[in-house]
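Case study.
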Amino acid sequence: MSEVLAAYDTLAERILAALRHDLSDAEFDSLALDIHAFQRRWNEPYARFCATRPMPTNWREIPATPQNAFKRFALSCVPGEHIGKTFLTSGTTGETRGAHHFRDTALYEAALLAGWRRLDLPRLRHVVLAPTPAEAPHSSLSHMLATLAVESGDTKSVAMLGTALAFLHHFETTPARVLPPGSFAMETGGYKGSGRDIAKVELYAMFEQHLGLKPDAVLNEYGMTELSSQFYTRGLGAPHTGGPWVRALVIDPARDTEVAVGEAGVLRIFDLANLNSSLAIETQDLAIRHEEGFELLGRDPAALPRGCSRAADEMLRR
Amino acid sequence: MNTLARAIALAEVCQSFPFLGPSTTDDLLAMVIADFGSATAADDLVPPTVLHILAGNTPAAALQTLTRGLLLGAHNLAKLPSAGLPEVGEFVARLPAALAARVETSTTLPEAWLEQADAVVIFGDDETIAHFRNRVRENQRFIAHGHKVSFGVIFDDPSFASVEDAARDVAAFDQLGCLSPHVLYVGGDARAYAARLAAVLERIPRTASPLSAACAIRALREDFAFRAANNEPCAVWCGANSTVIYDETPGFPHTPLYRTIFVKPLPSDWSAELHEVRSHLSCVGVFPNGAALAKLAIGRICPMGLMQLPPWTWHQDGVAPLASLTQNPG
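After joint prediction, the assembly is written out as follows.
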């Protein structure tokens, strides 16, 4: 048992040192392959999956864990008694929730703060529209927003942080109030299970109308319970980007190869900070590849076929 | 034109669309006889105006409902899906002028159409149906065909005699029809049947699926590959043209369609297995033909291989195909 913990500690040190903006491609590749070897050795369900795939020679070839696997398998390198934190996916009623197990949240927090500082935002007083970690101990979002409190300042201007759904409720229930100059907002998450859906451009119009924030003063965070690092975009029309320790490929679903710039596919993410679980995750989100980063399309339910035999899960959701 | 003349003309046009199945003059007249008692009974009807609100998933449903309207001598207003449905144009182009004049098409819905219609036939999701249900008048007939799912049951087929038929039922219309099977329940060695089905499906060419479906299929494939690698009782065959998933987990599976078919062992408890989809079941394909499935109480039970070819006299969703267009509601 000490072997896995020692290996974890060694890699965690290297990952902490890699959370910097000038991480080279070669360093990323080398560290990714070492983390993969560790996960292949100690994460048993993932190891069994990898046994059916070729051994990778570079980070792009590392077998990606399907996001759904977090719902069925305990994806952890350290044994259960060493799991210090578990975040659960939000899941609608009756749906199995995915579990992301951490040895501790040190790497998660370091990656989060490194990614946030990369945005070079002013330190403003934070206003959080989300439950606290005490209220939602299994919510990675609550943990994330609470962790970001160390970046909070004592200012008149504010940084409002919350889910898109929380902002929507705020706009619908609170009178419009223009925030002091220099304020900004960060919204995240979709409308899963809420029965609500609103185009981003409409949501950002509400930010302007209710809070006086121009679109460029609103950031969107793309993250997942199954990840430790995040991607951000600012305003409308710009792609999501992350720190060099977290990379995204947009994959042609039929050919399993990266699409060309400007084309759409499924998003596969490689997050060095995901040490205890799986650094490569195949999401179920669609995205368009950009020269740098990606434009998120989400799960694109509008593009699903309509008709009398639409996908059964659509039907059963009613 | 009287009913016989219309039936002759329509039967000829239907021959150009093999996916409509057997469509002789007698097949069409059988509908008239079944619904009205004689082949000439519809000659004296005041022709109704029928509004058809069509879905884009299969051209078969669209051409069938238009054929039924035309057979009655109705004036037909066809609201096409916004992306169009080229088969409707081809169908109308082949009609004799007297019948072609009785079809109007549009990809948008002119307000007057809903007003003019004596009967509204609609294919679509629950939301669309609810929208139009609220807009029809009390004296307008409203025939709705919503979401449906179908499945196959192969009781005993150690020599895989039914695989070609099953593959044809899965492949038709890229599985988007309400008669398309989502799952095949197989007695005996279901896993071996799945492997054989995968091989046969791969021989049937197809066009690419839309991106969102392709991504959903990929997610399902990877999910089952992960589960199979972890010794769960499942397996997945990923081909260029199809995905076959063998899964012993109880419950009616969800498939992203486009030739993504589940193969499962025969359930010990049909009631529990079908519980979630009970109110949405449309058709069961059965092998060997004649095997007893009466206890399932499902509208249409047919031999495997004919799932996509319902007879013209079939009462889809319990509705008489012609009489429903002419009788007063209630």
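Observations recorded in class. Residues 236 and 245 of chain B are 4 Å apart (CA to CA). Chain B touches chain A through 53 residues (CB under 8 Å). We will return to this complex in the next lecture.
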